[in-house]
Amino acid sequence: MELLQLQYFRTVARMEHMTKAAKELRIAQPALSKTIARLEEDLGVPLFDRQNRQIKLNEFGRAFLKSVDTALSVLEEGRREVADLAGMEKGTIRLATTVLNRLSKALGAFRAAHPEVNFRIVQIAPGSMMDMVEMLENGEVDLCFNGASLEEERLRELPVLRAEVFLAVPSGHRLEERDCIALREVEGEPFIEYKAGHPFRKMNDENCEAAGIRRDVVCEVDEPEALSSLVAAGLGLAFVPGCKGDDKPPYSLVRIETPSCYRTFSVAWLERRYLSKAAVLFREFLVDYFSRLQEPVQRKDAM
């Protein structure tokens, strides 16, 4: 059994299509078919069910794929550790995040200080944030940056930013010039909200429940940019986190005195997996970078 066979098998298993897998691997389809056939011969069982020209991973294949994923992930960790020790790798950080908008400036600042380090970033839909746990387990990413806890015992999570949540108020609204409010004052107001299943929607619902109010949700969105643009257009109010250094928004931000509203942004990793020097450096950088942004903000200077 050879390493190349395992790599080829994983690609074919993922795509369940020999021709497409051969194209991705940049080899001839007959050569790929022979490689998979030799692997099945070595194992003594078929890994795919074949009917006409279609293939589908079978029970043996699914069981073997789990072990192959683990083996290739461990080998990649070993390669990166040896490269780190030998000083041959400048560093590539593999990162998954549901809140790229909150992380983008930190990424720019880190790259300016460490231009030799590269990033591979996967943006995850907030409603699918638990996919990041599987990505860490499979060794697909080194770190995750999230605006809500993943709540997994097998992971380490380090809070790096506790951002105050403000009420975003469009121009001309009766609350536009207020410095602060109690949340109960917006009973029945139209709100722009995240869709159900979004972690921020859950937090916002809990804050409204604590204030004893119901809000009129007039629009549900996926991304903070959409939420911001709809508030600016005057369609309703919204909950928006802010911290020092954020770009000035096209609407007012009013501090919520009661109940206190905050969002905690954290970096997560799997402790049993090897973290490259570059990944450790970036994790430490995030702690320092965000610690300088947690000073009190002016209501019209945050976003």
- What is the CATH C-level name of the largest domain? Alpha Beta
Poorly predicted tracts of residues: 296-303
Number of helices in the DSSP assignment: 9
Instruction: Tally the beta strands.
Output: 12
Which outline best applies?
elongated
Distance, first to last CA: 55 Å
Name of the CATH superfamily of the largest domain = Periplasmic binding protein-like II
Number of domains: 3
Binned, the helix content reads: 40-55%
Mean pLDDT comes to 89
Query: What is the name of the CATH architecture of the largest domain?
Result: 3-Layer(aba) Sandwich
Largest sheet: 8 strands, mixed
The helix/strand series, from N terminus to C terminus, equals HHHEEHEHEHEEEEHEHEEEH
- The class by helix and strand makeup works out as alpha/beta
How big a fraction of the residues is strand? Answer: 15-25%
Query: From the alpha-carbon coordinates, what is the Rg to the nearest angstrom?
Result: 24 Å
Find the CATH topology of the largest domain. D-Maltodextrin-Binding Protein, domain 2
